[in-house]
Amino acid sequence: MHRDRRRYSLRTGAVLLTGLVLLAGTALWREVPASAQGDDASSPVPFAGDPLTSDKDTFFAGSGVCASCHGRLTDAAGNDVSIDSYWRATMMANAARDPYWQASVSIETANLPQYAEVIEDKCAVCHTPMAHFSAVQAGAGTRLFEGGFLSVEHPQHALALDGNSCTLCHQIEDVAFGEPESFSGHYTIDAELPAGERLNYSRFAVSEQGSAIMQGASGFIPVQSMHMAQAELCATCHTLYTPYVDDTATIVGEFPEQTPYLEWLDSAYAGNTPCQGCHMPQAEGAVVTSITGGEPREPFFKHTFVGGNVYLMDIFLAHGAEMATTAGSEHFAFTREQTMAQLQQRAAAVSLENVGFADSTLAFNIVVENRAGHKLPTGFPSRRAWLHIAVSDSAGNMIFESGGYSEDGRIIGDDHDDDPARFEPHRTVILSPDDVQIYQSIMGDVNGEVTSILLRGAGYLKDNRLLPAGFDKDTTHPDVRPSDAALADANFVGGGDRVMVSLNTGAAEGPFEVSVELLYQALSYRWIEKLRDFDTAESARFLGYHETVPNTPVVIASVTESVSP
Q1: For the chain, which residues make up each domain, given as ranges?
Q2: Which of 20, 273, 354, 517 has its CA 20 to 30 A from that of 371?
Q3: Distance between CA 19 and CA 30 in Å, rounded?
Q4: pLDDT, tens digit, 9 for 90 and up, residues 25-34
């Protein structure tokens, strides 16, 4: 089915970055986890979610068109693996509805209004991709606000809100895969094929009869192509370089804002476990992928697109109805559950080594293992993980704590949370409660001053995010190399970190209980607080959500050990 034809490649820039619910053609038969329920008045109110859109234009069809045939699917074990049921509550589906993203775009444009059109265009490439692509083809504007795609009056509004939908991802061609020219939203989609004859790629071959049925029902012709299972497909949006400005507000360069593909490329996972291997887990056995019939197919990758953003799942659970999401509370609760499992079962591990006590000094090593195929955390620089260390005496009294947190999401003792102009250094040894090991990236502007404004981020002042197994920090690509302190730390290596702890127990009596947790936040304190500096409707809306949903960190991994004098 591949034939010579002129291709169109997007080159416009980068993204800045319960109960039973019956939905378009399928149902997700699950009870809401207890964490999503509650007995008090502040508990989220269940909601069904709006129908998926069936809007079409020359190039795309909304997810509702696809769901009519690719819903109500089960695997060999009888599990519901309906594509739309899994996808509709993911961050992929809600890329345009994401209230933090909308707030971030609004403050970036408020900070540099002369670049408003440029910023919104770059954000739209991967957050409202179908609307953006169609607008570019028509020579129309690509604004998000001010009557743009996010306005209900815009003719492309429904397709814009469909986010990273079926006919977007499945039309991306394997052009320049893994090459810099494909990064930052520079995916390639054929613009020349007419409506009704557009190609839709998948891993599976389709019979002539099945192809005719799909073309008649959706206007898309299925074509087998294994590039849909490659990490390079994901890299087109998730390897992101953003422009940055100097003190005169002149764009003077590009900054590697997120680089999970490049991190993966230098890991032990490259070549055997692509992004889809972890973020789209396999069904149990074969799946008939359409209600119209056909042969069972395997492996079938479930469209969970599971990541690490528990906090936004909580916000969607609390406020999804007013955001008019096409996922219901049951779907968000399920995605939250899957996200927690990803973080707590497959992301990391912590253990203790060389635990000893002598002359009132308790000493031990904390070993942190990164089990992800990229840095932990990776992606957008608002994310952070840190060590919470607590030591109690024989009476249960806490005699030492490092990395505790408050209800507003602050890390106690973090220099950056205390002062936005400073940041906590990389730690090799922890000697006091003010020493906190935080795995994070901190942006700096052209003057080397701390910033969380993306268009002022010229580089990382700190990057000690945990490296994946097999990663050589000394020989890797410069854009993913750790910052100097982590680079010089012999215990900070591919696969994890080792931190020494030494503390004086004074007059406290043992045995002592040592507890260590690896905690995680998708949105760190300063990345939320910066919204207060700007008077935009979107920032105010997100801060309102934030007031009702605690930004409680997730415990990724933990270990507890008793130590006798």
Answers
A1: 95-162, 347-563
A2: 354
A3: 7
A4: 333 323 333 3
